[in-house]
Amino acid sequence: MPLDKFKNNIREYLQDYDGKLFFYWKARVGLYTILKAMGIKEGDEVILPAFTCVVVPNAILYLGATPIYVDVSSDTYNFDIPHIEKVITNRTKVIICQNTYGLSSDLEELTNLAKKHDLFTVEDCTHGFGGTYNGIPNGLSCDAAIYSTQWNKPFSTGIGGLLVTNNKELADKVTDLCSKLMPPTWKELLNLKLLFFVKRYLINNYTYWPLVNFYRWLSHNTNIVGSSTSEEITSLEIPEDYFKAFSDVQAKEGLRNISKLGDDIKKRKENALLYTKFLKEKKKNHVPEDLFSNHSFLKYPLLVKNREEFMKLATTARIALGEWFVSPLHPVEGDLSLWKFNSNDFPMAKYLSKHVVNLPTTPSNIDRVFHFLEKHSDFIIDSP
Ligand SMILES: Cc1ncc(COP(=O)(O)O)c(C=O)c1O
């Protein structure tokens, strides 16, 4: 069975993790499930970073609870942990922290704070599979964690995600909830297979941007399998087919891709070191060297002055820069009040989402990226 083999490979990467693993059509479904298993309901508050993907507050809001955002730090792109205590109330039940771009943050401080207030912790580790924090695999320091295996994540199953928890009581509740997952339709699975083919055989330096933009358009305007449906970015109604299971089609793709993960992570770390060295020498912003490594560096964040122009130049130069997160609740731009978010309350998240791009950490030729950065270094914001 592909799923059993896939599970074994994942356990190995998580240092022979022997707790429960649950798989979903998308990681957000795992987040929703664990919050439900934690008993989150109307009137409860869930703390999360003010620099995330909109599907994270969605999972909270679908349960009738209230997202309480905390501003983030420009070092870790996760929240400033000392700020959390100020927003804890007797309605707070969970803290969701986030491994952003594959950067670890001080989870020891966070889990101690959660223990002090008797709160659950969930690590949104959608970017962080494969790194460690204090020698512990990312995702295993909290009560539970989700990992995404969507296209651009540490290893891909096309779309997909998983949930881990070492807490037996929570795992039993999740097992019960998962019995209600609906299977993907044959159309969705066919769609996925077609997308695997396109990714494997048609994507190259020349076709990357046109195909990625076309895919984004299709996923917002048609029924093609995509990252987020238009409902998820315009309303708080839980989509009818949200609670969906993982499939063997995804497990097979995952098996193929996880076999390359070791080499990819090694390369990501080497390239991240090179980026840091280059940026530091030029006195430009860079990931601090003394953070809570060992980061997995899915991407390398960089702050630039005129992102729109910089992205245009990158597209022309055929450099695959990323744009997470173009908004504090990516990808929704503009008015975020539906998600109970006021950008003015979170100045750092607002600033970062205006200026951040991310550099590829496994490019086929990193020299081309350096050449591009050198040529356009005026765009790069100086070190603080
Ligand atoms: C920070 C963050 N959390 C959660 C998710 C959701 O992952 P998925 O698309 O697998 O549901 C994403 C998606 O990219 C993300 O960036």
Automatic annotation (TrEMBL):
<dbReference type="GO" id="GO:0008483">
    <property type="term" value="F:transaminase activity"/>
</dbReference>
<keyword id="KW-0663">Pyridoxal phosphate</keyword>
<dbReference type="InterPro" id="IPR000653">
    <property type="entry name" value="DegT/StrS_aminotransferase"/>
</dbReference>
<dbReference type="GO" id="GO:0030170">
    <property type="term" value="F:pyridoxal phosphate binding"/>
</dbReference>
<feature type="active site" description="Proton acceptor">
    <location>
        <position position="153"/>
    </location>
</feature>
<comment type="similarity">
    <text>Belongs to the DegT/DnrJ/EryC1 family.</text>
</comment>
<dbReference type="InterPro" id="IPR015424">
    <property type="entry name" value="PyrdxlP-dep_Trfase"/>
</dbReference>
<protein>
    <submittedName>
        <fullName>dTDP-4-amino-4,6-dideoxygalactose transaminase</fullName>
    </submittedName>
</protein>
<dbReference type="GO" id="GO:0000271">
    <property type="term" value="P:polysaccharide biosynthetic process"/>
</dbReference>
<dbReference type="Pfam" id="PF01041">
    <property type="entry name" value="DegT_DnrJ_EryC1"/>
</dbReference>
<dbReference type="InterPro" id="IPR015421">
    <property type="entry name" value="PyrdxlP-dep_Trfase_major"/>
</dbReference>
<feature type="modified residue" description="N6-(pyridoxal phosphate)lysine">
    <location>
        <position position="153"/>
    </location>
</feature>
<dbReference type="InterPro" id="IPR015422">
    <property type="entry name" value="PyrdxlP-dep_Trfase_small"/>
</dbReference>
